[in-house]
Design a protein that fits this description.
Blueprint lengths: L1 H20 L1 E9 L2 H14 L2 H5 L3 E11 L3 H13 L4 E10 L7 E6 L4 H9 L17 E5 L4 H11 L4 E5 L1 E7 L7 E8 L4 E3 L6 E6 L4 H7 L13 E8 L2 E11 L2 E9 L8 H15 L4 E7 L3 H8 L3 E8 L2 E11 L2
Parallel strand pairs: 13-14
Antiparallel strand pairs: 1-2, 1-7, 3-4, 3-6, 4-5, 7-8, 9-10, 10-11, 11-12, 12-13, 14-16, 15-16
Length: 339
């Protein structure tokens, strides 16, 4: 009898471990970048340097929670829909505040126009991101500076940092995932631009185009894991995903460099080829270049590959042919002026 109970206990523990392994810990936030991130990290370095390695400076919208792996597609669709239904907005940071005596946290208050942050949160907090059934704490939009503020330090920190004010325009929300390992680092996994997606090809194959700087799971499925290499940080790379009837059918990776927009990857699912989808991706890239005041589009392909003939048929001209040691096919670079 005891052996059977032990076996049942082991089986139950194994199922529990398997269930935990099938979950991913995530949260959704406004992540601060560039100069503002450097300013905030200067404050964090003075107060809590350990935070810098663990997660980027941010304002949490949906706090950390576990999501089942099988809910991942629904999770991304939820964030994409919430972002599409929201518009970019201005956010101000400061003054400094604390959660003492409840928790030893010092933070920068995050303020937007009345109701903007609350509306964005409510659009996100559905489906797999719905809050747990326990009573939620009141939402205080903030950017954490330290989680180890002693009461003795509080007055000095508040006095020194009380003049701090900064402002930024929020144009995206970011999904962050906790890595395995003792450090429990949080890494940006995907980002979602605020605002309705553009629709191209009206009257034909209507495609919804969405832009981001980080590849989500649907984009990775199209482009492969290498897509994370140029998109690992919020840099000059952009990815555009074309969706038809809600499904991702094509994607392109672009890079801003040397006064041109370089299309590094362009992929269309086999069943959607020869329907003008790739052309619509190029049109979307050209629109980005025009809005960014970039005069030239560039494409790189293997000599004789279908991408080369596709580009030439759409007005690209050969700029450079580069021989590759050990490969009979050269690399060709083609360009086109932005209309």
């Amino acid at each position: 009898m005891g052996g059977e109970q032990d076996a049942a206990g082991r089986e139950q523990r194994a199922r529990a471990l398997q269930g935990r392994a099938a979950r991913v810990r995530v949260f959704v936030a406004i992540v601060f970048t560039d100069r503002l991130a450097a300013e905030i990290d200067g404050l964090r370095r003075a107060l809590a340097p350990e935070l810098i390695a663990r997660l980027p400076p941010h304002c949490t919208l949906i706090p950390p929670q576990n999501v089942r792996v099988e809910e991942w597609a629904s999770l991304e669709a939820t964030i994409r829909a919430a972002a599409a239904a929201s518009a970019p907005f201005r956010l101000t940071l400061g003054p400094i505040g604390t959660f003492l005596p409840r928790t030893p946290v010092a933070y920068l208050a995050c303020n937007a126009e009345d109701g903007v942050l609350e509306s964005l949160r409510s659009r996100l907090a559905v489906g797999p991101l719905a809050p747990p059934r326990r009573v939620e704490r009141p939402f205080v939009a903030h950017c954490t500076l330290t989680t180890r503020l002693s009461p003795a330090m509080a007055s000095a920190v508040s006095a020194v940092l009380s003049p701090f004010r900064a402002a930024t325009v929020v144009d995206r929300v970011v999904l962050l995932v906790q890595e395995d390992g003792p450090a429990h680092r949080w890494r940006p996994r995907a980002d979602y631009l605020l605002g309705a997606a553009s629709v191209l090809g009206r009257g034909g194959v209507e495609l919804e185009m969405t832009w981001s700087s980080l590849a989500d799971s649907e984009a990775l499925a199209l482009l492969g894991e290498d897509a994370t290499r140029p998109l690992g940080e919020f840099g000059d790379s952009r990815i555009v995903v074309a969706r038809w009837q809600g499904q991702a059918v094509a994607a392109a990776v672009c890079r801003l460099a040397s006064g041109a927009l370089h299309i590094d990857q362009l992929l269309v699912q086999a069943e959607h080829r020869r329907q003008g989808v790739a052309t619509q991706l190029v049109i979307a890239c050209e629109r980005l270049a025009r809005e960014s005041l970039i005069p030239t589009l560039m494409v790189q392909a293997c000599e004789g590959a279908s991408l080369e003939s596709f580009a030439i048929a759409r007005g690209f001209c050969l700029v450079e042919r580069v021989a590759r040691p050990g490969d009979s096919r050269a690399l060709v670079r083609l360009s086109r002026r932005v209309a």
